[in-house]
Write a structure and sequence with these properties.
By secondary structure, this protein is α+β, with helices and mostly antiparallel strands. The chain has eleven helices and 14 strands. It has a five-stranded antiparallel beta sheet with strand order 1-3-7-6-2, sandwiched between helices. The longest helix has 22 residues. The protein is globular and about 115 Å long.
C-alpha cells in the first residue's frame, strides 16, 4: 500500500479535485464520498474551504493551510470493500499517522506528533484512474480543532510509514515487498544480459537492458566532465533503482569484472589414466580331499561384551533457529528491540498474523511489547526465563528452548506467544458501552 502526503497552499483547487467539482474531472460519477471529520455533511468544496479558512484565520503567516493525502491500497485486497470498509481503512491510516514521532540518528526529535484525527477533513474514493485502481483522496486542515498546527516536517515519510504499518497489520503486500521483488527481477535481467554478451560493450549492455522483451526498462547513466560513465540507474516506470541496490557485482566499477567472471572458461579436467595391471594366473585347484581339524570352543564369560556395541542414542535437542536476517518471499520486515539494540528481521507473514491476532491492538494495551518479545523468542534472540510447569508438579526454567524437530512455524509461534504472555502479562483495554 502506498501513502502520500503534502502540505499545500491552493486549498480550494485541491478540494474541488477531491470532491469531483473540478472541470478537469471527466468522470465525476466515479468519485464517491467516504467520510468527513468535524464538518457538517452536504457541504460543497467552497463550503469546506471557508470552514477550514475560519479555523486557520488566527495563525498569522501560515502559508500551507491544507494537507493533501493520497492512499492507494492493492486492488486485489479491496475488490469486496464496502464504504464502511474504506472508512475504517482511513481511520486506521490516520491513527498510525498521528502516533509517529520521527527522530534522527542521534535520537533528537525532528518531527513531533500530529493530530489529523482532530482536524477538519473530507475523504473521497476515486475510481477513474487509468489503471482502474480505487484509491482515497483526502484534504485535511493544517490546524486542528484545539488550535494547534499540524507539523508538516517529513510529512511524506510519515505517510509512507503509516501506510506500511497498516498494510503489515492487515497482512497485505507492502511497498517494501514490491520494491524488493522488483530489485531481484531487474538484477536477474542484468545478469542474464551480461551472460548473453559475447564481447564487452557498455552501449550493448544498455541496449539489451532496454530491449522490448524486458518491458519498459530504461538506463540512465551518470557521467563526469570527460564523458566517462561513473554510475547508472535502471528506471522501471516511475520507480528508479540504483546499481548499488541491484548488487555490488552490478555497480559501474565492477561491471566489466562481472562480465569476465561469467565468461571465464571452465578449467579442463585431465582424463583418468588407470595404471596397467599385470594379469595373474589363477591357482590350480587341488583334487585332494581337504583335512578338517577340530577347533576348541571359546570360553564363555559370565558377562559377554559384544565386539561392536551399539552407540548410545543422543537425547533430542531443539532444532536451530533459521536465519531471519535475510529477506525471503512471504516474509514481513519487523524491527525487534532487544537489550537496547534494534534488530531488523524478516518473519513469516503467517507468524506475524498470528501475533497480531493473539495481541490485538484493539483490545490489548501492551500489544507492542508482547509482539516484540514473541518475535525475539521466535528468532532465538532471547530465551524465556519465566517458570514453566514440570511433570512433578513443581516449576523449572525452559532451558532447552527452541523449535522441536516436528514442530511447524505456527506451532512454535504459539509457544512464543504463550511465553511472552506469561512474562509480561496482558493489559486489556476497558470496554466502552454505548446507549
Amino acid at each position: 500500500m502506498i501513502g502520500k502526503a503534502k502540505a499545500i497552499s491552493h486549498g480550494i483547487n485541491n478540494l474541488r479535485y477531491i470532491m469531483g467539482e473540478s472541470k478537469n474531472k471527466k468522470h465525476p460519477e466515479k468519485i464517491d464520498f467516504i467520510c468527513c471529520q468535524h464538518l457538517p455533511p452536504g457541504l460543497d468544496a467552497m463550503g469546506v474551504c471557508e470552514s477550514m479558512q475560519a479555523t486557520t484565520a488566527g495563525m498569522g503567516r501560515l502559508k500551507n493551510t491544507l494537507i493533501q493525502i493520497e492512499l492507494s491500497p492493492p486492488k486485489e485486497y479491496t475488490n469486496d470493500f464496502r464504504p464502511q470498509d474504506w472508512q475504517q481503512l482511513w481511520y486506521d491510516f490516520i491513527r498510525e499517522f498521528d502516533r509517529q514521532t520521527i527522530r534522527d540518528k542521534n535520537g533528537k526529535v525532528t518531527s513531533r506528533q500530529t493530530c489529523l484525527a482532530g482536524s477538519k477533513a473530507v475523504v473521497y474514493k476515486h475510481d477513474e484512474s487509468k489503471g482502474g485502481i480505487p484509491h482515497l483522496h483526502a484534504g485535511v486542515c493544517r490546524v486542528d480543532e484545539d488550535g494547534h498546527v499540524n507539523n508538516d516536517h517529513d510529512i511524506h515519510l510519515r505517510a509512507q510509514r503509516a501506510a506500511e504499518a497498516v498494510a503489515r497489520r492487515r497482512g497485505w503486500t507492502t511497498a517494501m515487498d514490491v520494491r524488493t521483488g522488483n530489485v531481484q527481477r531487474i538484477a536477474s535481467i542484468c545478469q542474464a544480459v551480461l551472460m548473453s554478451m559475447p564481447t564487452w560493450s557498455w552501449s550493448e549492455y544498455v541496449a539489451r537492458i532496454e530491449s522490448p522483451s524486458n518491458g519498459q526498462l530504461r538506463v540512465k547513466a551518470r557521467t563526469d566532465s570527460l564523458g566517462r560513465v561513473r554510475g547508472y540507474s535502471v528506471i522501471d516506470g516511475d520507480a528508479k533503482y540504483k546499481a548499488s541496490e541491484l548488487g555490488r557485482s552490478l555497480t559501474c566499477s565492477r561491471l566489466y569484472a562481472t562480465w569476465q567472471k561469467l565468461h571465464r572458461p571452465e578449467p579442463t579436467r585431465q582424463p583418468h589414466n588407470p595404471v596397467a595391471v599385470t594379469p595373474v594366473a589363477p591357482k590350480p585347484v587341488s583334487t585332494k580331499p581337504e583335512t578338517v581339524y577340530p577347533v576348541a570352543p571359546k570360553p564363555v564369560t559370565a558377562n559377554p561384551v559384544p565386539a561392536n556395541p551399539a552407540p548410545l542414542k543422543p537425547m533430542p535437542r531443539p532444532m536451530p533457529a533459521p536465519d531471519y536476517t535475510v529477506w525471503s518471499p512471504d516474509h514481513r520486515e519487523v524491527e525487534v528491540a532487544v537489550q537496547g539494540s534494534t534488530h531488523r528481521l524478516f518473519i513469516p507473514k503467517d507468524v506475524c498474523q498470528l501475533f497480531d491476532d493473539e495481541f490485538d491492538y484493539r483490545e490489548v494495551v501492551n500489544f507492542q511489547p508482547l509482539t516484540n518479545l514473541a518475535c525475539a523468542y521466535f528468532a532465538a534472540l532471547l530465551c524465556p526465563d519465566v517458570p514453566v510447569a514440570s511433570g512433578g508438579g513443581g516449576s523449572s526454567t525452559d532451558s532447552d528452548w527452541g523449535r522441536d524437530k516436528d514442530e511447524t512455524d505456527l506451532q512454535f509461534a504459539r509457544r512464543c506467544a504463550r511465553m511472552a504472555r506469561l512474562k509480561l502479562g496482558i493489559v486489556k483495554k476497558p470496554r466502552r458501552f454505548h446507549r
